[in-house]
Amino acid sequence: MVNKMPALKPFLYERPSSLEQLTALLADHAGMVPGYLSGGTDLLVAMRTGKDSPELVVDLKGLPNLRGINRCEDGKLWIGALATIHSLEVNKTIRSQITLLFEAAQSLGSWQVRNRGTIGGNLANGAPTANTAAPLLALDAEILTWSPVGKRRIPVASFWLGARKTALHTGEIITGVEIPLKQGSSSAYTKLGPRKAMDIAIASAAVVLSLDRGIIQEVRIAMGGAGPTPLRARSAEAYLTGRPALAENLIQAGKLAASESNPRTSTRATREYRLSVIPVLVERSIRSALKRQEGLVEENGGEDR
Amino acid sequence: MKKTVVLTVNDVKHRETLLHNLTLLEYLRESLGLKGVKEGCGMGDCAACTVLLDEIPVNACLTLAVEADGCRITTIEGLCKDGRMSELQQAFIEHGAVQCGYCSPGMILTAQGLLAENPDPTEPDVRRALEGNLCRCTGYQSIVAAVLDVAGKRIKRKGSWA
Fold first, then answer.
1. Residue B102 domain-assigned (yes or no)
2. Stated pTM of the model
């Protein structure tokens, strides 16, 4: 008991069981900035370290319709905001068709953290290195939100406004994420951290691409830890589109991605270090995604891998 | 501020009126005296405080006690049945997988959660499940061996029944 952590500062805990109750709760406590609690793996750490001290903690786990992973009729995949990171890594559709999100989920925190942490929390936290952020950016996903004034559908590309700043208004919650599922595309996520487990990424690269007879057709590259927000490497994408999948082109794409980055020096790594690893991570992700294209070809009549 | 909740801890129902800012870790250790739940970092980085929440391993330091309303919680104390240790506890002893013992409850409960989800884990499966549980005596090798031993024995037994 010598080094016991200090108790959390007192707060009011509420667990609404409907959006109507949440609306009333927010009205009753107008002027307070609620701390939204889903998995607690970020919020409780922030409260413990004093980075955040909300007077009102609103547990979202009682709200209906925020759980599950379902295919929509329009060919999209809907992931409820309260879906745990572990539920992403064991989901069959994500494993087989959205490999980069599977890889991102699998490499987040520890099993204990993945059992509690949610995709909604990972996004709302706003960290530029959040594991699910770069993959969703590369997937051109949309974030669905709710607030007492209405629902919104935010393209991920306009979700992050700055360092830990998101497009969410005070009181607004994420209800889910929608990901377009595309036939013929493959993907990969590569994360660099001091340890395989537990660590937050120094930098990461997420790639989604499609290939036709050796020519890269469509490619989207997103990077984590390369700037104050997750970033698309648009000049690298433009360069690769229509070019053959040759080593020299991949190397050039990595260089272009680094030139589009503006990382900072933090306790995790220096700006210079990040700039030197970003091309490697981007290149590795492209290579893995390309390798998975062979798998797609094999699945359509080739031998079993 | 307080809230009344019902928590089932090691098969015993507790109706409690708890402070909102009390963590599950603080409740288990201080209110119930279950000192097998260890506080290491207090921030989800070491998993010494792992308990099973509805059979799933979670960090008790990152869970509010009031959040666990209506849930079943298992601590290391709950694995002992009629004074007999569980297979995993016994295997940890046989393999010398315990040195200072501080990480052991978290390790064993995480392994318990793994075997419930995947009764036939490979060595990489075991290492992945335990990757968030820190052991500062570095006994990982024997810990992994103990878990695999329990999994293997279980499977062998199943096989002999078939």
1. yes
2. 0.94
- The edge-to-edge listing of strands for the beta sheet with A69-71 is A69-71, A76-80, A173-180, A142-147, A150-155
CB contact under 8 Å between A112 and B19, yes or no, is no
d(CA A10, CA A113): 24
Give yes or no for B105 touching A (CB within 8 A).
Answer: no
Quick check: A112 and B58 CB within 8 A? yes
Helix, strand or coil for residue A278? helix
Q: pLDDT tens-digit profile of A248-299?
A: 999 999 999 999 999 999 988 999 999 999 999 999 999 999 999 987 765 5
Query: Any idea which residue has 């590259």 for tokens?
Result: A221
Q: Which residue does chain A place closest to B56, by CA atoms?
A: A115
Coil vs helix vs strand at A292: helix
Same domain, B120 and B152: yes
Which candidate, A225, A215, A237, A232, places its Cα nearest to that of A138? A232
Q: What is the ipTM of this complex?
A: 0.93
Do B61 and B99 sit in the same domain of this protein? no
The CATH number assigned to the domain holding B19 equals 3.10.20.30
Regarding whether B56 and B94 lie in a shared domain, the answer is no
Kindly state the tokens that stand for A4: 């016991």
Provide the residue range defining the domain that includes B50. 2-78
DSSP characters over A100-118: HHHHHHHTSS-HHHHHH-B
Q: Do residue B26 and residue A7 have CB atoms under 8 angstroms apart? A: yes
Partner-chain residue, chosen from A9, A10, A44, that has the shortest CB–CB distance to B62: A44
Which of A37, A48, A198 is the closest to B42 by Cβ? A48
Cβ pairs bridging A and B (under 8 Å): 95
CATH of the domain at B123: 1.10.150.120
Nearest residue of A to residue B54, measured between CA atoms: A115
How many angstroms separate the CA of residue B30 from the nearest CA in chain A? Answer: 11
Tell me if residue B116 falls in helix, strand or coil: helix
Residue A276, SS3?
helix
Kind and range of the H or E run holding B110 = helix B104-117
Q: Which residues of B touch A8 (CB under 8 A)?
A: 21, 23
DSSP 8-state secondary structure symbol assigned to residue B37: S
Q: Is residue B162 part of a domain?
A: no
Q: Which of B58, B78, B98 is the last residue of a domain?
A: B78
Buried b or exposed e, range B58-87, using 16+ CB within 10 angstroms:
bbbbbbbbbbbbebbbbbbbbbeeeeeebb
Residues B13 and B56 in one domain: yes
Cβ within 8 Å, pair A198-B64: no
Q: What is the pLDDT of residues B31-85, one digit of tens each?
A: 999 999 999 999 999 999 999 999 999 999 999 999 999 999 999 999 999 999 9
Token pair belonging to A222: 């997103």
